[in-house]
Each structure stands twice: as structure tokens, then as C-alpha cells.
Write a structure and sequence with these properties.
The complex is a heterodimer of chains A (242) and B (100). Chain A is built from eight helices and no strands. Chain A is mainly alpha-helical and 242 residues long. The chains are: A mainly alpha (242), B mainly alpha (100). Chains A and B meet through α3, α4, α5 and α8 of A and α1, α2 and α3 of B.
Amino acid sequence: MSTHAEAIEQGHGHEGAHEALAHHFDNLEQQREAGALGMWVFIAQEVMFFGGLFLAYLIYRMKYPQAFMAASNHLNWKIGTFNTAVLITSSLTMALAVWATQVGRSRKVQVGFMAATVALGLVFLGVKAVEYYEKYTGGLIPIAGWFDPVGHGIHMPDGVTVGQYQMFYWLYFAMTGLHALHMIIGVGIIAPIMYWAWRGKYSPEYHSPVENFGLYWHFVDIVWIFLFPLLYLLGAHFSAGH
Amino acid sequence: MSEHIVPRKIYFSVFAALLVGTAVTVFAATINFGWANDVIAMSIAVTKMMLVLLFFMHVRYSSRLIWVIVAAMFFWLLILLLLTLTDYSSRSWFGPTVIH
């Protein structure tokens, strides 16, 4: 209580600690813990959000295994592997960005790591855009009237119907699309965080936004860690590569 | 500050492990192990997830309150997947499956 009053009397000094402490917290440690808890509860909700789609994938994959393998075989696993490596690296740079604020590195270092994270995220999204366009020209967008793999030269193996093939691609677009949306939102959120980092707002005493955004970004990475083998690697042992 | 700062060396080790895990997953997928392909791929994915959770997301160094939230997450997902599977499996919905 007294330290807070002193902080007000001192005015807005360069001590981020007092400025950042909201009045309903006793100290920064409690505030930090409360913020992290809030982000974790949000992530738990996100697990529920994606969990439903993973469940749908699980059920339909068990229902139509051959169709899912054939459809997965048509995805470019090399591109998928590259994107996985890109996202894993972006998680590393984000962890290092949090570290930089924790140990009080310069604003340039902090923003540098965040910029690297954004750059890698944009690479991922760019690659996904190219993939989606390939699906579009290949008649694989799962919209009635648009979905026509056979007409674009894709042969349906024995026992596989176009409807089953389409179910895989519906799940592919729903899951990777929702994931990409989360990445786009992530890039949008880190932008103001980078701005405040550049303004010198974050310090070893206060860097909650960076840390909590890191939690979000790592979660999005975890989702992709599961999406990649489930969507891209089913048909890999069918035939060499594509 | 009682916040634990993870040494960079650990971050880089985790990063390397994640890349290795990805490579192993891709390589294992090119060989037909039958039903074991799924087990291998998911085991590696779960391991990678645990590494990201524990070290990148600092759960290893977090309070019990955070551990409870993370555990609850997994528990909920387990219920969603397993109980729904018991429902579908106990009907003839899946039918005869032939995996090449």
C-alpha cells in the first residue's frame, strides 16, 4: 500500500515496476501469476476448441482409413515438413524473446527475436497460401460444385468414394484453416507488443504480455505438431513422395 | 524476482530435439509398420508437445495452480476422445476396415 502511494508521488519514473502494478494486486509477482493463469485457462479453452475437430478427424479416419490415406498421400509432405520446421523455429525465437525481457536485454534484442518470430510465422502462412491455391487449381476445395478430384486427374483407389475423399479435405481445410487463423491473430497481437518493447516498456520486473503471448504462440505450435503427422503423413508409405 | 529463468542452453536443446523428432516422424512414416505407424507418430508428437509445454511454456517451473490447469486440459481431452470412441466403437458404425 505504501509503496504504491510512493510510486504515485514519484510520478512516472523509469521504473516499470511500479507503473505496471495494477491497484488490485499486492505485488508484481501476484499480478504475473494471475495473468499467466488467465492465459492458461484461455489455452485450456483453445484445447477444447481444436479438440472437437481432432475428434471429428479421429472418428472419420477410423471410418474411412483407405480414403484418408489416399487423400493424405496427395498432400505434399515435403512442404509440410518444411512448415513444421519453420514453426518450431518460431517457437524457439519466441522463447528467446521472453528470455530477453526476463534478463533485461536491450530493446533491439527483444524486438529482434519477436521480429524473427513474426517473419517465420509469415513464411508459414505464405507457404500455406501456396498450398491452398494448389488445392484450388486441383479441384480439391471441399465446396459443393467445386470438389472434383477425378476431373483433375486424381484416381480414386478401390473402395474409396469421392465423398470420403472430400471428408478428408474438409477436415484438412477446417483444421489447418482454424490453425492459420490463430496464427494470423497471433501476428496481429504481437505487433503492439513489439511496439511497446521498442518503447522500452518491458523489463525483468514486468514482461507479462511477452510471456503470455509466448504461451499462445507455443500452443499454436503444439496444434501444428499434431496436425502435421495426422494430415500429411498418412499415405507416405503408399508410394514414394507425392 | 522469484520467476525462474530458463537457461538458453535448454531452449536450444529442446529445439534440436523437436527437429530430430520431426525428422524421425517423417522417416518412420515412409515405412509400413501397419497399425504401429500411428503409435509411433503420436508417441513422437506427444513427446514434442511435452517438451514445448514443460520448457518453452515454462510449465516445468510453474506453480501447482498452473499444473492443475494443464492436467485438467489433458483430462478433458482424454474424456472427449475416449468416451466418444467407446460410443462409436460399440455400434457397428466403423464396419469392417481393411488397411493396406
